[in-house]
């Protein structure tokens, strides 16, 4: 049977929750009265703790759900793609399947630092915003994910750490009472191949069930670098059993995969002011990275070399063990304990364009070295033909030269997490309360090492390395001033290790005042202690080559500085819901939230002085769930105090950052609805309007000039965005075709609001055909119109005052060009 729009019934996805949270028969029978085809009937398990089942339309906070049917229809490859239908989210997934950015309700943090990703209610990574270790790097989408629930704001920060913005809960499949399975093969237009599937069922006549599933992929990547970018996959297995006294679940997951990591590229504006790639470079399909820039040997202070391989991309090797225990202690009293251990090794290598120049202008900066290197002038030569000087004027149709950061980050990490809670349903003075009291503990151990160099290339697809040479009077190269394309080794250096112990106590109460009125409240007290050591830095002349490449290398000093810091804070939330009818309700909520510093704030700088980041949210909404129509509207206000911005600059060959703070305020409205008036037609739409601004931001630049940027727009957050998805069901509902039309309003890439990222609109097409009840065909076409959509500017040119402001040629990153994937799947 084909997917029903947006959200199908979730009986299988939430059966475990429903077993533990039996519906309250003393309350009004709302669930029984509501139309069973309505998504408002879905039982939700995220953002609350209680024994009573709660339907989506009864929630006192904003929650979106994504069904297994929709996941099959869209086949998202990464977390960002899976969540692009969620209102209130600004999602940037132009880097690829991982390493994306999500901003929720105007919270302008990068990565996943204010969002937690969960599997079955327990976080997959305690701090999703560790440096160069985004939570989406440690999570993969595949067919073992049955449903997704997304809580925005509200109680998210009460039941999870580092989640003031949102909680995204991926609910996994479990084995059922009969043997079944699923297999899928998918092929893409960029030499992409992927197999995906699972099998599960009972273990004999025991109460135990099993499920095993995963995927394996091979791909050249959507920006083809000339070598394979994606290879590897994931496998997971679960064992679960239910008894009269409760239930048990054990799970194991292994990720061993490398995926590409797309970077910025050069742009100009056309006669209409729209961004296009520079001459000779296709902004939708081309990439600077290529065979010439894949391998480097970085000179090290001890005389060794560090082997850089851009083919590593983002490499993730992760092992995760999960346990879950549920106990029915007494009537209305349950205990649940979830624990998870993970060990991961992450390596991220990238060729990252730093600055683009007119080749002649850049060359003039090196003319001072001509006489010292035995020449009368300086010029360019390709590294694979050092005897031939080349004229860069108009070369590749653009005459540009590019300085690139060749970056390598290595982050091994281990963590143990435990979350246990008691849940009690009680009647006090005839009124029902669902109480919860829980504790959370996380031990995180991390190492962090970074090294990089700057390298010079031309500008074209799969760019070539350039060296700068001293030229004799005849214009012939005499001696290389740079080394094999390297302008400077040691542009970045970090070496540290640390650990943190986080303990939290939280509690909540869902108080059913009347059959229609409910008041929900909760609190979370959290404490973190961090400790570790960080190696100092020094700039040295290695003296290992005759070039300038190793004259000023940032490297370790051999002196380690310890750090040991503790932080604590308390947050709380209070909300109310009034259910006029089973399918009609109103809610309002206030939340005081926070984010504590973590080991990631110190592991690169032991003397860092981070602060507790405090936020508060006000929201209210209308929820309607009828036979053929679901509608959710939420108005919100987000206040963020002490938002930290780190501005990076490259000075004298060294890349360094400075952190400043500001306050923000965002007003907004989220709208989400589904209308299915006929069996052959349905429509889903979501719209977000927000006014995201700095309420206070005063900045003093390196020259001592003070500028007040208060009331400027926040970085990369659009004022308007929407997605409309009309769909038709044909051939007795065996064929379903969807068109996804997305619009993203203009944004700014810098605090000064000088670099504008223009608005853009995209079109995606998806089709699904049931050949039989078991055999299915899918087609996915992304960015049908080949739209260029800039998601970010060049943060390496400055996040506050961007040095590329007003430049005719600039660096930015676009969404991917049109791609086509097809799939065949079989259910058994």
From TrEMBL:
<dbReference type="InterPro" id="IPR037066">
    <property type="entry name" value="Plug_dom_sf"/>
</dbReference>
<keyword id="KW-0998">Cell outer membrane</keyword>
<keyword id="KW-0406">Ion transport</keyword>
<feature type="compositionally biased region" description="Low complexity">
    <location>
        <begin position="28"/>
        <end position="39"/>
    </location>
</feature>
<feature type="domain" description="TonB-dependent receptor-like beta-barrel">
    <location>
        <begin position="475"/>
        <end position="784"/>
    </location>
</feature>
<comment type="similarity">
    <text>Belongs to the TonB-dependent receptor family.</text>
</comment>
<keyword id="KW-0812">Transmembrane</keyword>
<keyword id="KW-0732">Signal</keyword>
<keyword id="KW-0675">Receptor</keyword>
<keyword id="KW-0798">TonB box</keyword>
<dbReference type="InterPro" id="IPR000531">
    <property type="entry name" value="Beta-barrel_TonB"/>
</dbReference>
<protein>
    <submittedName>
        <fullName>TonB-dependent receptor</fullName>
    </submittedName>
</protein>
<feature type="compositionally biased region" description="Low complexity">
    <location>
        <begin position="1"/>
        <end position="20"/>
    </location>
</feature>
<dbReference type="InterPro" id="IPR012910">
    <property type="entry name" value="Plug_dom"/>
</dbReference>
<keyword id="KW-0408">Iron</keyword>
<dbReference type="InterPro" id="IPR036942">
    <property type="entry name" value="Beta-barrel_TonB_sf"/>
</dbReference>
<feature type="domain" description="TonB-dependent receptor plug">
    <location>
        <begin position="56"/>
        <end position="166"/>
    </location>
</feature>
<dbReference type="InterPro" id="IPR039426">
    <property type="entry name" value="TonB-dep_rcpt-like"/>
</dbReference>
<keyword id="KW-0472">Membrane</keyword>
<feature type="region of interest" description="Disordered">
    <location>
        <begin position="1"/>
        <end position="47"/>
    </location>
</feature>
<dbReference type="Pfam" id="PF07715">
    <property type="entry name" value="Plug"/>
</dbReference>
<dbReference type="Pfam" id="PF00593">
    <property type="entry name" value="TonB_dep_Rec_b-barrel"/>
</dbReference>
<keyword id="KW-0410">Iron transport</keyword>
<keyword id="KW-1134">Transmembrane beta strand</keyword>
<keyword id="KW-0813">Transport</keyword>
């Amino acid at each position: 049977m084909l997917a029903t729009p947006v959200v199908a019934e979730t009986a299988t996805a939430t059966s475990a929750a429903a077993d533990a949270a039996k519906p309250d028969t003393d309350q009004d029978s709302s669930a029984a009265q509501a139309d069973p085809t309505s998504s408002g009937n879905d039982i939700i398990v995220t953002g609350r703790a209680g024994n009573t089942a709660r339907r989506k339309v009864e929630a006192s906070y904003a929650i979106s759900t994504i069904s297994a049917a929709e996941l099959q229809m869209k086949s998202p490859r990464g977390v960002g793609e899976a969540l692009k239908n969620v209102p209130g989210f600004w999602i940037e997934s132009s880097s690829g399947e991982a390493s994306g950015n999500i901003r929720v309700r105007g919270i302008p943090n990068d990565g996943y630092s204010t969002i937690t990703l969960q599997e079955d209610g327990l976080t997959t990574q305690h701090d999703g915003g560790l440096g160069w270790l985004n939570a989406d790097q440690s999570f993969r989408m595949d067919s073992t994910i049955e449903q997704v629930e997304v809580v925005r704001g509200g109680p998210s920060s009460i039941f999870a750490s580092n989640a003031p913005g949102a909680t995204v809960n991926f609910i996994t499949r479990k084995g059922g009472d009969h043997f079944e399975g699923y297999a899928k093969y998918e092929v893409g237009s960029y030499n992409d191949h992927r197999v995906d599937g699972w099998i599960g069922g009972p273990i004999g006549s025991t109460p135990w069930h099993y499920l095993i599933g995963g995927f394996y992929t091979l791909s050249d990547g959507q920006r083809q670098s000339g070598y394979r970018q994606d290879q590897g996959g994931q496998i997971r297995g679960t064992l679960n059993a239910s008894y009269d006294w409760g239930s048990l679940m054990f799970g194991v997951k292994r990720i061993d995969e490398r995926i590409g990591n797309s970077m910025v590229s050069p742009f100009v504006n056309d006669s209409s002011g729209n961004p296009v790639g520079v001459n000779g470079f296709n902004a939708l399909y081309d990439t600077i990275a290529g065979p010439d820039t894949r391998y480097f040997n970085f000179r090290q202070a001890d005389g060794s070399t560090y082997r850089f391989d851009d083919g590593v991309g983002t490499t993730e090797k992760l092992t995760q063990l999960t346990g879950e225990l549920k106990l029915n202690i007494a009537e209305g009293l349950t205990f649940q304990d979830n624990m998870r251990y993970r060990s991961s090794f992450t390596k991220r290598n990238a060729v990252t364009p730093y600055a683009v120049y007119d080749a002649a202008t850049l060359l003039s900066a090196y003319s001072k070295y001509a006489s010292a290197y035995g020449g009368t002038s300086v010029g360019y030569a390709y590294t694979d033909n050092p005897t031939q000087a080349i004229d860069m004027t108009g070369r590749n149709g653009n005459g540009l030269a590019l300085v690139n950061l060749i970056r390598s980050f290595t982050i091994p990490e281990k963590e143990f997490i435990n979350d246990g809670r008691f849940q009690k349903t009680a009647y006090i003075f005839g009124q029902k309360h669902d109480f919860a009291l829980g504790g959370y503990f996380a031990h995180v151990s991390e190492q962090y090492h970074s090294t990089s160099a700057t390298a010079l290339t031309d500008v074209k697809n799969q760019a070539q390395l350039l060296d700068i040479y001293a030229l004799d009077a005849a214009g012939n190269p005499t001696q290389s001033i740079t080394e094999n394309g390297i302008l400077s080794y040691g542009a970045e250096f970090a070496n540290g290790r640390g650990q943190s112990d986080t303990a939290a106590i939280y509690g909540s109460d869902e108080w059913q005042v009347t059959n229609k009125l409910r008041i929900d409240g909760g609190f979370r007290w959290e404490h973190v202690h961090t400790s570790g050591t960080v190696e100092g830095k020094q700039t040295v002349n290695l003296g290992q080559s005759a070039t300038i490449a190793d004259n000023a290398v940032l490297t370790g000093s051999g002196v380690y500085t310890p750090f040991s810091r503790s932080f604590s804070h308390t947050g709380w939330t209070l909300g109310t819901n009034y259910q006029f009818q089973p399918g009609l309700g109103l809610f309002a909520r206030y939340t005081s939230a926070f984010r504590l510093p973590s080991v990631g704030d110190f592991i690169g700088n032991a003397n860092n002085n981070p602060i507790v980041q405090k936020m508060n949210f006000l929201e209210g909404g209308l929820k309607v769930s009828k036979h053929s129509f679901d509608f959710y509207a939420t108005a919100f206000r987000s206040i963020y105090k002490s938002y930290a911005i780190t501005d990076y600059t490259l000075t004298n060959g060294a890349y360094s950052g400075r952190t400043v703070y500001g306050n923000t305020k965002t007003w907004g409205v989220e709208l989400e609805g589904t209308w299915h008036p006929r069996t052959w037609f349905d429509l889903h739409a979501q719209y977000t309007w927000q006014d995201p601004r700095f309420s206070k931001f005063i900045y003093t630049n390196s020259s001592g000039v003070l500028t007040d940027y208060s009331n400027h727009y926040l970085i990369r957050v659009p004022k308007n965005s929407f997605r409309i998805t009309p769909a038709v069901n044909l051939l007795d509902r065996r064929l379903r075709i969807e068109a996804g039309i997305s619009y993203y309003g203009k944004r700014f890439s810098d605090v000064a609001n000088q670099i504008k990222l223009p608005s853009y609109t995209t079109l995606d097409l998806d089709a699904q055909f049931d050949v039989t009840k078991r055999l299915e065909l899918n087609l996915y076409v992304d960015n049908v119109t080949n739209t260029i959509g800039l998601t970010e500017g060049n943060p390496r040119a400055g996040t506050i005052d961007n040095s590329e402001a007003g430049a005719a040629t600039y660096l930015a990153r676009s969404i991917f060009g049109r791609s086509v994937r097809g799939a065949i799947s079989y259910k058994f």
